[in-house]
Amino acid sequence: MTNYGSTAYLDNAATSPTPPEVIKALEQYYEQQKVNVHRGMYQLSAQVTQQYESVRVQVAHFIKAASEQEIIFTAGATAALNLVAFGYGLSHLQAGDEILVSVLEHHSNLVPWQQLARLTGAKLRFIGINVAGNLDQAQLFSLLNSHTKIVSLTLLSNVLGNYLEIAKIAPRVHAVGAILVVDAAQAVAHLPIAVQQLQADFLAFSGHKMFGPTGVGVLYGRAALLRQMQPTSFGGEMIEQVNYQGATFLPAPQKFEAGTPNIAGVLGLGAAISYLEQIGFAKIKQQEQLLMQQLLTGLLEIGGIQVYGSQRPEDHIGVVSFNLDTIHAHDVATILDTFGVAVRAGHQCAQPLMRTLGVESVVRASLAFTNQKQDIQRLLQAILAVKEILS
User: How far apart are CA 4 and CA 15, in angstroms?
Assistant: First the structure.
């Protein structure tokens, strides 16, 4: 596991630790197997290609996809969402169409849709939240109409830690002929994901937030929709035929994976999935709920703490955002760092949500099952010290 030394690391929503199993997979590739995939006419290349493609099968099983052909490897969740926006949306939307997103969204699930709307003349519409920070489903359903073409929502808020009931929303989205895109980057390390049960048309996540390497991620897409999509990157590996006038492309997923892929990253992603599956999400949930109970209860006992979203620990999965009195979030985080506590401070790449909450920034403590009770206790004691220092 990544060694943070004496630091209580509570920024898991930004990126998670790396277990030895993942590091071993990366080292083995670079030290013993550094070849390209899909190309070499020799045994080692064939071996690594088989390992690489076996991770595609592994990912399909991990998220309960119908086929590994629905799994596209990307540089991360951001790249995956951009691929949907410009590979699917650009050829399917026109002026007068509508895209729905919520105010909860990370910028990665907002800015691509803004750009798509600008390029196509479509209209971007926002779904609000209630006082507990949950998605306003009534407003969502009222916004759905025959002009709605894409609804893109996070599965788990990176600021409030609340879970969106995607499976309950999906039938209404599909009833108006729209597709449902799910950003699962925040959820993938905390919850089991079943794309067919969610009825997601597309779903994106990153490796580095689920104990894997940076620079690798996944886009799941329903096979019928992938056939309709256009590639957004062109070059080797995705080609069927090339002549002087043009080219034809291989079917998905190869159509969307131009160039030499992040081979080590994909192998590391496979190791991360094996790591999570060996531990099991039941054990992960149990440990994280105990830590969240300790964290939120402790925060609410400190005078001057404003917790955003629900006040109930069971409503926060991995994340609590708060402010302390009128002290700027950056100042709180900076002083916490002097006590060996690592948290995130700022707008959390969710500026529309900050405006909805009526603040410019928050302090975010995000935990994983790898944290211990002493990490939480250290944070709570350090916050009391911040109060004393800045009172």
Answer: 13
Q: Please write the tens of the pLDDT for every residue from 64-110.
A: 999 999 999 999 999 999 999 999 999 999 999 999 999 999 999 99
**Amino acid identity for residue 168 in this structure:** K
pTM of the model: 0.97
Spatial separation of the C-alpha atoms in residues 212 and 271, rounded to whole Å: 7
> Would you give the end-to-end CA distance of the chain in angstroms?
38
In angstroms, the CA 87 to CA 278 distance is: 35
State the CB neighbour count (10 A cutoff) for residue 101.
Answer: 23
Shortest CA distance to 265 belongs to which of 76, 50, 117?
76
Q: Tokens for 378?
A: 């250290």
Active site residues: 349
Calpha distance 345→199 (Å, rounded): 34
For residue 377, how many other CB atoms are within 10 A of its CB? Answer: 14
Could you read off the pLDDT of 244-272 as tens digits, one per residue? 999 999 999 999 999 999 999 999 999 99
